[in-house]
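Two proteins follow. First one:
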Amino acid sequence: IMDSSTVCMEYLKDTNMLFIGGLLVAIAVEHWNLHRRIALQVLLIIGVRPALLLMGFMGVTAFLSMWISNTATTAMMVPIAQAVLQQLQKSELEQSAVEQGTAQNGTINRAFEMLEAPPQQAQVQVVVKEKLPEEAEQKWDEERQQLQEKHQTLCKGMSLAVCYAASIGGIATLTGTTPNLVMKGQMDELFCRNDNVVNFASWFTFAFPAMLVLLVLSWLWLLVMFLGLDFKKNFGCGISEAEKRKSERAYSIIKSETLAC
């Protein structure tokens, strides 16, 4: 039977205590909503375009995953991403409904203005008045379905982006993920005279550039897979006035959420 000092050496290694410290940092970040503040501040800076939104969440997730565990980072960032996407969808639906209602009112008003026309033309105008609302309603249903499909595709891409970024960001530091700490502990145990060649600084110098390259490549891959090759639309170049109003409304929602934190 081993004495207590020998047993404690096996359970209270530097690697284990460092892992516990990472969990405590994750609890502190979640308690004070630091992850939410960072995410919303980044979105206020880069904007709410689909490509930039994807890049912003991936950057924030990778940064947080450098200091806390991948699982904790993913659990904290996925609800924020889903909430932001739901607010964006709600904003788009409301804006589309307002525009559709304006178009329908304009159609009906034109019919009422022409009621004083001769009898033959009046009959024709009545037929047009009855058909246009149905066509407008059908157009609104199609547009709403397109927005729903777009939202679902963006949600899939965002969920995968957060998970990918958490895994990629964890390789940048020793504390980023558990396998890094396990490797460090095994190396110190098997090669006792390694002169501490693997430490936080040396690991960061070696792994951080690789993490950046992998993060950019994964962002481009998800961008092509879920948002398509229309980079002009994804980055918001040359968009219409309606799209600008939607973006401004979404930006104001994110700004109000940031002030509420």
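Second one, unrelated to the first:
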Amino acid sequence: MLSLIGAIYIVYLAIHMLFSMKKQQTGENRSDCNFWSGFFVQVTNVKVMVFCLTALTAYVLPYTDSFWGLLIIGIFLPFTGPITNLAWIFTGVWLQKLFYNHEKTINIVMAASLLLCAISLIVGIL
């Protein structure tokens, strides 16, 4: 029963995607965002802290106890969060341009993919 409800919802999403209209991009600039606010958010990011602790305890400490090795890794690890965030930002900007320029084609492909998912859910019930 739940699969049928999910399939109906997926069909609804596919239809909505097919008939969605192109929206205007807004060039809204926010002046309250600056380097220091981004730096503060990144330094206090719990995911980065957990990643650093996990990486140190699982992958570094069992293999070395050198002070200099731990110091180098300890300095390097916090920079992996901002580097991966930058990768996501640049990829997102590139994909946004691609999706905006080819919106109708991408909407058709995505709607067809959603319909295939809904069909596979319904076939799985039968």
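SUMMARY FIELD: Residues 67-101 form the longest helix (35 residues). The two ends are 11 Å apart (CA to CA).
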